[in-house]
Design a protein that fits this description.
Rna Polymerase Sigma Factor, Chain: A; 0% strand; mainly alpha; 2 domains; Arc Repressor Mutant, subunit A
Length: 191
């Protein structure tokens, strides 16, 4: 256990009511902290957000210590991971809604900067492509979004998804081919 973890345990234990509860919480922390972090990071793909979710989960666990049982570690694990995953999904959805709102606001601001007809045509194309992306295989969609929306290179995508760079390259080629097929199927003519 490093100094940061010891400090975290000390801070959390200030919220416990007794020495046995203190010891039990320490055991929960030491046993599940890393697994909680990896579960949150797997959903959020952001170190700071994952840390925040783990902290929130521990605060929830402290408030609900009576739901944890010393003699049922498997039940505790399921309960703990459910809390972490729910908090991570909620944060993910919240950030996604915020990003969509910001993109929408930027698009509205840009409408008045250019020729209105051209800008509306461009917005319609983007909305059409977004709808097609929603219908794609999630792994293909993720690769395309990371590559073109988030402007990540193959190495960064491979690291984020836990895949090899060659695997990401092959998936990218297949994803672009599939996107092109779907766009043509729906009548989109363009490059």
């Amino acid at each position: 256990m490093d100094i940061t973890q010891a400090s975290d345990i000390f801070q959390y234990q200030a919220w416990t009511n007794s020495e046995p509860e203190n010891d039990f919480f320490r055991e929960i922390y030491e046993t599940y902290r890393d697994e909680m972090y990896y579960a949150a990071f797997g959903i959020l793909q952001n170190r700071q957000d994952a840390e925040d979710v783990v902290h929130e989960a521990f605060m929830t666990l402290l408030a609900n210590m009576d739901r944890l049982e010393e003699n049922f570690p498997r039940r505790n694990r399921n309960y703990i991971l459910t809390i972490v995953k729910n908090k991570a999904y909620n944060l993910y959805k919240s950030k996604k809604r915020q990003a969509e709102k910001e993109v929408g606001e930027e698009a509205l601001e840009d409408v008045f900067d250019e020729e209105p007809d051209a800008k509306f045509m461009e917005m319609e194309k983007k909305e059409f492509i977004i709808e097609v992306l929603k219908r794609m295989n999630p792994s293909y969609r993720d690769i395309l979004l990371l590559q073109y929306y988030h402007e990540m290179d193959i190495m960064e995508i491979a690291e984020a998804l836990g895949k090899t760079p060659d695997n990401v390259r092959h998936m990218s080629v297949r994803a672009k081919k599939k996107l092109k097929e779907m766009l043509e199927k729906y009548g989109f003519q363009g490059r």
